[in-house]
Amino acid sequence: MANLEPILLSTVLFIVVWRFLSKTFFTPYLNLLDQRDRATVGATARTKKLLEESEALAVKFSDETKAVRLQALKRRDTYIEKAKQESRSVIDEATELAHKELETNRQKLEELKGRVRNDFSQEAVLIADRLKQKLLSGTTSRTIH
Questions:
Q1: How far, in Å, are 66, 71, 73, 103 from residue 63 at the CA level?
Q2: pLDDT, tens only, 58-75
Q3: What is the C-alpha separation between 86 and 104, in angstroms, rounded?
């Protein structure tokens, strides 16, 4: 049994040292590693969740931006069409006014032509009467005014 004593003493001493080291060093170190692993996994999970949320927000923002852009384009097209209609209306009104003014001026011109013809014909009659009187009176040497 003398050979077993050092083995038994070594075994008991090993178990005592193992328990002491386990409580003071191994268990806290393993707990620390476990906490770090949980924190890393938690941070990774939170990061993944935040990434998914940011991607969802980016898609939502893109969709809303497209919708606003489309609405702005429709509004712009509406304004352009309205402006075109207004310009057509203004052009039509100006054309109609120009035609009326042209017609009025043509009528005035015709009236003036009629007056001028009438005046010329009256002057022609007067000149003819004066010529006739001068011819009859014998004074043909004077010029006619």
A1: 5, 12, 15, 59
A2: 999 999 999 999 999 999
A3: 27
d(CA 53, CA 45): 12
Sites in the chain below the pLDDT cut of 50: none
3-class DSSP state for residue 139? coil
Tens-digit pLDDT profile for residues 98-121: 999 999 999 999 999 998 888 888
Query: Measured in whole angstroms, how far is the alpha carbon of residue 46 from the centre of its chain?
Result: 39
> Is 144 in contact with 131 (CB distance < 8 Å)?
yes
CA 37/CA 26 separation, integer angstroms: 16
Is residue 4 within 8 A of residue 11, CB to CB? The reply is: no
